[in-house]
Specification:
It is built from 5 helices and 3 strands; from the N terminus they run βααββααα. By secondary structure, the chain is mostly helical.
Length: about 110
Amino acid sequence: MAEKTLRELCDSLGVSRRAVQGYEKAGLVSAEGKNERGYLLYSEDTQEKINQIKLYQQFGFTIKEIKWLMSAPACELKATLEKQVEKMKGEKIEMDALIEKAQDLINRL
């Protein structure tokens, strides 16, 4: 990966401009500079951080929580992720039960 403009970054990572701007506003990432046309450039490190942010969002963390996670010591990060995994497992069980109820309802129709 090389430095990318905001458009290239969004296209390659599947993230919206607004999301990147939100990450910047929260202090999670920032542009490294500008190219000759004045477009903001994002480094490989920033691109990796955005991928990490997206993953944490998929896990259900808020931007505020993600900001803490990205600077947390490894032992605290591990404990927080383990707790989140347990929470997601509980949510999965609940979702599986709802799916089963919906399927039963469909089968009765």
